[in-house]
Design a protein that fits this description.
330 residues, 17% helix, alpha+beta, single chain
Length: 330
């Protein structure tokens, strides 16, 4: 008896949901309708060119959306939205109140470095996450990330990859926005984690990256250096206020490269058999040790780079295995 009642309820719910889908499909301005409901929730403009509807879901393509989260910016072009039938019925068809799940498909999360603070003074409250008024009405506190990437953009506008194929969450609460993602960096193994906290009010943002014995399987392009072989291991934490500049960030951590190979923009041949240990403190990155081979030469080097100043790199190197006859011939 109870089975029949439950079955009848399920059929009624399914029929109601299907009628909602049919209604949406008949609505010629469904893209505009979704944009009108979602734009206030993200505290800015939201535009979508194409929508593909499913059962209690919508796949938004060619989306134009940017979410500014302090020094982080999330750019996304595809979003999947899940709707709750119960919330849809309770809200009398209000899309904004019926959203149960939001998935950002292959978003680009950008961490941008500026030369200095903006001319306008910063307010006492942070723009992290959504605006305070919009956040109170936001239907969910958890946004999923599917296949995202994180890049660091320096003062010249060059992009440096920090992570690829990232899956995880962006969670919002009264404190701020926390993020946690798992992916890879130049590797096929998912042995990289990125976590962080972007506080809602005044305070320092924190982003941490952990790489666990990641074997390089595809080139890691760092502009002047391209690493195409080796094992990466290390962890690093970056904390900064609401606007990231070269003078207000605090970097700490370490990175090692074992049995690596890299190409240099200033050298015609690659460095091989590289073993490197780097450490970071404040704005200074130190090459604690570097040993490798260049053709038949044995190379050892050390140095430091303070990226808060321009051209502030000090590097010392020792080369052994040089044949005097080659020098005389040249």
């Amino acid at each position: 008896k109870w089975v029949a009642v439950l079955g009848l309820i399920a059929v009624l719910l399914a029929a109601t949901g299907w009628q909602a889908v049919l209604f949406l499909e008949r609505e010629r301005n469904v893209e505009k309708l979704l944009a009108e409901h979602i734009s206030p929730l993200v505290g800015g403009s939201f535009d979508v060119k194409r929508v593909r509807l499913g059962f209690l879901s919508a796949y938004l393509s060619d989306v134009q959306l940017e979410l500014p989260l302090n020094a982080l910016t999330i750019r996304v072009s595809d979003i999947k939205i899940g709707f709750s039938l119960l919330k849809l019925l309770r809200g009398s068809g209000d899309f904004s109140k019926s959203i149960s799940k939001i998935i950002l498909i292959k978003p680009s999360i950008q961490l941008r470095l500026a030369d200095s603070l903006p001319a306008q003074p910063m307010s006492t409250s942070s723009p992290s996450s959504l605006s305070m008024d919009a956040a109170k009405d936001f239907p969910i506190d958890l946004v999923l990330v599917d296949g995202g990437k994180v890049v660091f953009i320096d003062r010249a506008g060059q992009e440096f990859p920090l992570g690829d194929d990232l899956d995880g969450t962006l969670r919002q609460d009264s404190v701020g926005v926390s993020l946690k993602m798992v992916g890879n960096l130049a590797s096929h193994s998912r042995n990289m984690t990125i976590s962080g906290m972007l506080p809602r009010h005044r305070g320092r943002n924190t982003v941490s990256v952990r790489i666990t014995r990641a074997r390089v399987a595809r080139p890691l392009d760092l502009k002047a250096v391209v690493i195409d072989r080796g094992i990466l291991d290390g962890e690093c934490t970056l904390d900064f206020p609401h606007h990231l500049t070269v003078s207000n960030l605090n970097l700490r951590g370490w990175l090692s490269i074992e049995n690596g190979r890299c190409s240099l923009a200033v050298a015609p041949r690659p460095l091989t058999n590289i073993n490197v240990m780097l450490s970071a403190a404040g704005t200074v990155v130190t090459i604690d040790s570097l040993r490798g081979s260049y053709t038949s030469l044995d190379v050892r080097a050390g140095g430091r780079w303070d990226f808060a100043g321009r051209d502030s790199m000090v590097l010392s190197a020792t080369v052994s295995g040089v044949k005097p006859s080659l020098l005389l011939d040249s």
